[in-house]
Design a protein that fits this description.
The complex is a heterodimer of chains A (291) and B (377). Chain A has 291 residues and is mostly helical. Helices cover 66% and strands 6% of the residues of chain A. Chain A contains 13 helices and four strands. In chain A, the strands form two sheets. Chain A has a two-stranded antiparallel ribbon with strand order 1-2. Chain B starts with a helix and ends with a strand. Chain B is of the alpha+beta class and 377 residues long. In chain B, helix 4 (124-133) packs across helix 5 (139-152), helix 4 packs parallel to helix 6 (168-180) and helix 5 packs across helix 6 (168-180). The chains are: A mainly alpha (291), B alpha+beta (377).
Chain lengths: 291, 377
C-alpha cells in the first residue's frame, strides 16, 4: 500500500473546506453581528425622539444605569439597577434549585425504567416544547387567576405575584434540567449501582456518593441551560408576575419599548451578558477540576 | 464437611503470616442452595425458566465453579445469591441463616463483576474504602484493611490511580480487592476474567488460586470456559437450561460425566451408542471387547470416550478398523478425526510423532484403553 501523503489535508472536526461555510455564516450573521450591534449601541447617544441612536460615542448609557441625577443635577450612585439584578439572580437561582430538586430524581427514575418506557417518558417530558411558550404562559394565567382552577380549589390568587413568575419559570425550565441529566444517567452502568449496593451502601448513600458524582456533567449542563435563560426571562415575569417587581429581562424590554432608550437597553444587555459569561466561566473551571 | 474445613485451614496456615488480619473473625459458613427456581419473561412474553429447582451445597472455604453455556442459569444463580435477583421459590442459607429475603446490602457476600464496575470517579483506595465506610469501622481500621487487600492483590503502587488510568488486569485486581476488603463469607465472581486476553487470563487464574488460599474465603465463580473451570475449581457445578447437571471435582466431571451434555461440554469426547453383551460393546461400527464388569448391559447403552483414551498404536483393546478423515497437527499432539464403516465420527488424540505415518483416507486399526471408557446415563 502506498504511504499516505503527508501534504494531504486531513478532514478535521470542522469538516473539509466549504462544508462548514453555512455554520460560519449562521454564526456570524445571527450571533456575532447582533452582539456587536448591541455592544456598539450601548456606547452611543440616545436618539432625539427616543428610538434609534445618534452615532456619537458616550458613556451616558452606563452612567444612567449606575447613577441617578436629581432635580438639581447632582449625580449619586443608583442602587435600583443593582437591586433588579440581585432580584433576578435570586429568582433564577431559586428556579434552578427547584428544577434540580425535582429534575435529578425524575431524570434518574426515567433512566432506571425499561428502554421502551424511557422513550415514552422522554417524549412526555418534551411535549411542552410542542406548544408555544406564550400559549403555555397564558394557560398558567387562567390557572392562577382569580376564579381560576387553583383558586376554585381554595388556593390563594397567585397571578400577578412573584410566586406566579416563579411557578411559570420553574414549569418552563424543568424539561431543560431533566433532559441533560437523563442523558448522562441513562449511560450509567447498572452494574456500578449494583456494586455499590453489594458493598453495603444504603440507597441514599448510593445516590450521594455514586450516582450524583457520575452524572455531574449532566447536572452542570442542566444548571447552565436553566439558570442563564431564567436570569434573562421576560415572558413569565411580565405575563404572570404582572411586572410588579422588575426583573432584568423586563427592564431591558422596557428600554427598547416604552422608555425608548436603546443605549440604556443595550448597556443592560451587555451587563447581563458579562454576568452570564462570568457564571459560565465559573462552571467551566469546576468541570475541569473534576476531569 | 469437617475434612473440608481442615484441609482449608491447613492451607491457610501456609500463608497466614502474609494476611493475618484477613483471617480473624472469618466464621465458617456453608452456603446451602435449596430447590431454587426463577423464571423470566422474554421480550415476547414467553416464560423462561432460568433456574429450575437447583439444589447445591457449597462448603465453607471451597472454590466452586458454576459452569455452563450462556443462558444456562449460572449467572442468575450468582445474582440470586448476591441479592440482585429475587428467587421465585426455594431457600438460600448461609451458615444456617436464611439470606434470600435480605436486600443485597445486608447480605454478607460480595461480588466481583465481569465489567469490574469500579466507581470511575474514585481512586483505587476510595473504591476499596467505600465498602468499608458503609460499615461502622474506625478510620484507622479502614486504612489498615485497605492497605492489606492492596498488598494481597499486589496493587499498592497504583493505589491512587483512577480506574481509567489502569489496564484491564489491574482493574480486575482492584475490583477483587474492593470485594475482599469487606471480608465476605462468600465471594461471588461473575466471569471476572472474560474480558482479559489469554495470557493475562492464565496469570490471573494463578493469582485467584493464590488469593483464595490466602484468604480462605468461599469462592463461587461463574464461567462458560471449561478450561478455566477445570483450572480453578475445587468443585465444578455444570448447568444447562436452568438445571444443575452434575457436581463434582474437575477429575470426576472429566472422567465420569453423568450425561452426554456434560461429556460434550467439558473436553472433547466421542459418544458411542450400541449394546453390551458379555462385556462386549457393539455399535456405531465398532466392537470393543473386555469392558469393565460394572457396565450395565440393559438394552441400548451410551459410552463416552475421551480422545486421549483412544490410540492408533497397537497394544490396547482393539475397536476395529476406521478411515482417517482429517489430521490436525497442534505441535504437541495430533488430533485425528476418524470415521467408522457405519459413518460415525471418532475423535482421537495421539502423540505428534505419528504425523508421518498417517494419511487422510488410510484405513487404520483403532485401539482404546477400556479403563477410560465412561458410561452415560
Amino acid at each position: 500500500m502506498k504511504p499516505r501523503s503527508t501534504t494531504e489535508k486531513e478532514p478535521g472536526i470542522y469538516g473539509p473546506g466549504l462544508v462548514s461555510l453555512p455554520a460560519y455564516i449562521t454564526g456570524i450573521l445571527l450571533v456575532g453581528l447582533p452582539l456587536i450591534v448591541v455592544i456598539v449601541f450601548s456606547f452611543l447617544q440616545r436618539g432625539e425622539f427616543g428610538s434609534g441612536v445618534i452615532h456619537k460615542f458616550t458613556l451616558d448609557a452606563y452612567r444612567t444605569v449606575f447613577y441617578e441625577t436629581d432635580l438639581m443635577g447632582n449625580q449619586s450612585l443608583n442602587f435600583s439597577f443593582l437591586k433588579i439584578i440581585l432580584r433576578s439572580i435570586l429568582l433564577a437561582f431559586t428556579v434552578t434549585i427547584i428544577c434540580l430538586i425535582v429534575g435529578i430524581p425524575t431524570a434518574i427514575w426515567i433512566a432506571l425504567q425499561k428502554k421502551t418506557t424511557q422513550r415514552i417518558l422522554i417524549v412526555l417530558v418534551t411535549i411542552p416544547f410542542w406548544i408555544n411558550v406564550l400559549a403555555r404562559t397564558y394557560a398558567w394565567m387562567l390557572l392562577l387567576a382569580d376564579g381560576g382552577l387553583f383558586n376554585q380549589f381554595g388556593a390563594p390568587v397567585l397571578l400577578y405575584t412573584s410566586w406566579a413568575t416563579f411557578i411559570g419559570l420553574t414549569y418552563a425550565f424543568l424539561p431543560f434540567m431533566v433532559l441533560p441529566i437523563y442523558a448522562s444517567a441513562e449511560k450509567l452502568d447498572k452494574n456500578i449501582l449494583e456494586a455499590a449496593f453489594d458493598l453495603g451502601a444504603s440507597g441514599w448513600r448510593v445516590l450521594i456518593r455514586i450516582v450524583i458524582p457520575m452524572i455531574r456533567f449532566g447536572i452542570f449542563a442542566g444548571i447552565a441551560i436553566v439558570f442563564i435563560p431564567a436570569l434573562g426571562a421576560y415572558v413569565q415575569p411580565s405575563l404572570l408576575g404582572g411586572n410588579k417587581s422588575m426583573l432584568i429581562g423586563s427592564l431591558i424590554n422596557d428600554q427598547f419599548g416604552e422608555s425608548r432608550n436603546w443605549p440604556v437597553g443595550s448597556a443592560l444587555a451587555v451587563l447581563l451578558l458579562a454576568m452570564t459569561g462570568v457564571i459560565l466561566l465559573a462552571t467551566r473551571r469546576r468541570k475541569l477540576e473534576f476531569v | 464437611m469437617v475434612k473440608q474445613c481442615v484441609t482449608v485451614l491447613s492451607r491457610n496456615d501456609i500463608s497466614s503470616q502474609k494476611v493475618g488480619l484477613m483471617q480473624q473473625d472469618l466464621g465458617w459458613a456453608d452456603l446451602q442452595i435449596n430447590e431454587v427456581s426463577k423464571s423470566f419473561r422474554d421480550p415476547k412474553g414467553a416464560e423462561v425458566r432460568a433456574l429450575d429447582g437447583v439444589s447445591l451445597s457449597i462448603p465453607a472455604g471451597e472454590f466452586t465453579v458454576l459452569l455452563g453455556p450462556s443462558g444456562c442459569g449460572k449467572t442468575t444463580l450468582l445474582r440470586s445469591i448476591a441479592g440482585f435477583e429475587k428467587i421465585d421459590s426455594g431457600h438460600l442459607n448461609l451458615g444456617g441463616n436464611r439470606i434470600d429475603l435480605l436486600p443485597p446490602h445486608k447480605r454478607p457476600v460480595n461480588t466481583v463483576f465481569q465489567s469490574y464496575a469500579l466507581f470511575p470517579h474514585m481512586s483505587v483506595i476510595q473504591n476499596i474504602a467505600f465498602g468499608l465506610e458503609n460499615e461502622k469501622i474506625a478510620k484507622s481500621e479502614v486504612k489498615a484493611r485497605v492497605d492489606e487487600v492492596l498488598e494481597l492483590v499486589k496493587l499498592t503502587e497504583l493505589a491512587d490511580r483512577k480506574p481509567s488510568q489502569m489496564s484491564g488486569g489491574q482493574q480486575q485486581r482492584a475490583a477483587l480487592a474492593r470485594a475482599l476488603a469487606k471480608k465476605p463469607k462468600v465471594l461471588l465472581l461473575d466471569e471476572p476474567l472474560a474480558a482479559l486476553d489469554l495470557k493475562l487470563r492464565k496469570a490471573m487464574q494463578f493469582e485467584l488460586k493464590r488469593i483464595h488460599r490466602a484468604t480462605g474465603t468461599t469462592f463461587v465463580f461463574v464461567t462458560h470456559d471449561q478450561n478455566e473451570a477445570m483450572a480453578l475449581g475445587d468443585r465444578i457445578a455444570v448447568f444447562n437450561q436452568g438445571k444443575l447437571q452434575q457436581v463434582g471435582t474437575p477429575f470426576e466431571i472429566y472422567t465420569a460425566p453423568s450425561s452426554e451434555f456434560v461429556a460434550n461440554f467439558i473436553g472433547e469426547s466421542t459418544v458411542l451408542q450400541g449394546k453390551i453383551t458379555e462385556q462386549i460393546f457393539q455399535g456405531d461400527g465398532l466392537r470393543i471387547a473386555n469392558l469393565n464388569q460394572n457396565m450395565s448391559s440393559n438394552g441400548s447403552v451410551k459410552l463416552m470416550v475421551r480422545p486421549e483414551a483412544f490410540t492408533l498404536i497397537e497394544g490396547e483393546t482393539s475397536c476395529g478398523n476406521v478411515e482417517i478423515k482429517e489430521i490436525i497437527f497442534t505441535g504437541d499432539s495430533l488430533e485425528t478425526l476418524l470415521v467408522t464403516h457405519s459413518g460415525h465420527e471418532v475423535k482421537v488424540k495421539t502423540g505428534a510423532m505419528l504425523l508421518n505415518q498417517l494419511n487422510v483416507g488410510d484405513s487404520v486399526e483403532l485401539f482404546v484403553d477400556v479403563n477410560q471408557i465412561g458410561q452415560l446415563a
